[in-house]
Amino acid sequence: MAEYNDNAVFMPGTGTVMGGADGAEPPTHEEIKAWIAGGMTGSIGTYVPLGYTSLDELPSLESEIEGGEVKGAWENRALRTTQITQADSWTVTPIQWSEETLKQRFGDNGSIDAATGYFSVPAVYKSTRLSLVVIVVDGDGYLVFQHPRTETKPGDSIEFDTENFVGAPIVYTVTQAPGKNRQNITHSGLDPANQAGGTESGGAA
User: Fold this and answer.
1) Quick one: DSSP state of residue 23?
2) What is the pLDDT of residues 58-85, one digit of tens each?
3) In 3-state terms, the chain is what percent helix, strand and coil (to 5)?
4) Which of 58, 118, 174, 184 lies 20 to 30 Å (CA to CA) from residue 142?
5) Which H helix or E strand runs over 34?
6) Could you tell me which residues are beta bridge partners of residue 144?
7) How many helices (DSSP H) and strands (DSSP E) are in the chain?
């Protein structure tokens, strides 16, 4: 049975969104801790930062749930529930208009013309397939969501506000990579290096 655990509670003080190769393994706790200790800049293993993202529109994990409907019999009106299916997607709003952002928002088949400096938006959008990592950092603690496979599509409208950076919302739909979990979640309190004491708070009592 769960007990109160301060090391399993997080506020999204800062964080990042990173992309990696399709089907990539999640970053290790050692890699995550080294990245935080290094100032939270640069890559984590093979995962590369998407760049600056909106502070006003933090990443959000949205789920569409179907099923769970109660089915009954004459003798038992609540005999069982129907199978539950879940479809997840992240909405992220980059404010850094780098080539990777442009390709994920406007089409992976687009490109920057070296001669003119313009990004050519294709007539038909092609999604980017990538693994995704979202890291929430709260002091020395961290909460990590990793998806071995996601596919991009354009998010909501690009809007302008004189008091905010211009963002380009991107939706990352979670799909299934063969032989992989659909999603992996960990946090600093689950770090195996902190489990030697065997306490739920993640260390010696």
Assistant:
1) T
2) 999 999 999 999 999 999 999 999 999 9
3) 15, 35, 55
4) 174
5) helix 29-37
6) 135, 186
7) 2, 12
Average predicted confidence (pLDDT) for the chain? 93
What does the alpha-carbon distance between residue 138 and residue 18 come to, in Å, rounded to a whole number? 17
In 10 A of CB 172, how many CB atoms? 29
Q: What is the pLDDT of residues 14-23, one digit of tens each?
A: 999 999 999 9
Least Cα distance to 6 among 145, 185, 189 occurs for 189
Write down the residue that tokens 């706790």 correspond to: 29
Tokens 């069982």 map to which residue? 80
Tokens of 178: 């063969």
Look up residue 74 and give its DSSP letter. S
Identify the H or E element spanning 143.
Answer: strand 141-154
CB 48 within 8 A of CB 60: no
